[in-house]
Every structure is written in structure tokens, then in C-alpha cells.
Amino acid sequence: MSSGDAFGLTSTPDFLPGYHGSDGDKRYPSPRKLRSMGAVLIDLVLLFGPAFALGVLMVAVEMPRTNSYVLLPIPLAIIVGNWILLRKWVHATVGELIFGLVAIRGRDGAWPGWSELLSGRAPGHDGVPNIVRVRRCDIRGRGRESDR
């Protein structure tokens, strides 16, 4: 790699960005900013919607306090299922599935493990995001290797 590649002054095929799925990464060429915003909107509705609906239901129906505690785990189960379990099994939340995105690890492009799923998109110790969203069509396959 030349010094021009390191500073982004040239566009040779040898230039690789800092992590998988970053802006300008030629390994994942499809645009995904608008798709990511739509996926986040759907996931936020799934995050706050069940809790809001449960609150409205409890006020409207006037359930006895002992029966209302039975319904409290429902929003928690939806949140854990969407943000953790679904991401582990199909590599995407409901919003990401609707918009054709998947979650990968930023450091090597592999599927995220339990530690990345629990820490979310926060940067790791090396400054690389743990989870990055990319288009499903840009993923080469389950056994893909890093291009580095």
C-alpha cells in the first residue's frame, strides 16, 4: 500500500478501509444509510410499542394489580427476542430483515458472537464498531474470509 492509499488520495484496488462495512468499503458497495434509518425506525417501534400498548391496556381495562404483573414480561421478551436472539440466529433484527440488512462484526466481517450482540454497536477496545450493518446481498457466504 502506498502512502497515497493510506491518506485516501488514490483509489487503487489495494486500499482497504479501517474495518468491514465502513463508509467507502469496496467489499460492501451497496448503499445502506436510508435502509438503516428505516430499520432503526421499525426496531424502535418494536422496542417502545409493546410497553406503551401494555400501559394503555392496563389503564383501559383496569385489571387487578395481581393480574397486571403477569403481563410485564411480554415487552421484555419482545425486546430480548428482537435485539439478541433474532440477531444471533438470522443475523438481523426485524427491521433489518425487512430492509435487507444483516449484522456483521466490524473487525473481521464474520457473524457477531454473543459478546458483540450484548455490547451492540459500541466501539471495541481497538475503536472498531462491534456490529456493522451491511446489505445481505453483499455477503459472500457463511465461510467468508477477510480480504486482508
TrEMBL record:
Residue spans crossing the bilayer: 40-61, 67-86
Keywords: Membrane, Transmembrane, Transmembrane helix
Name of protein: RDD family protein
Source organism (scientific name): Nocardia fusca
Lineage, highest ranks first: Bacteria, Bacillati, Actinomycetota, Actinomycetes, Mycobacteriales
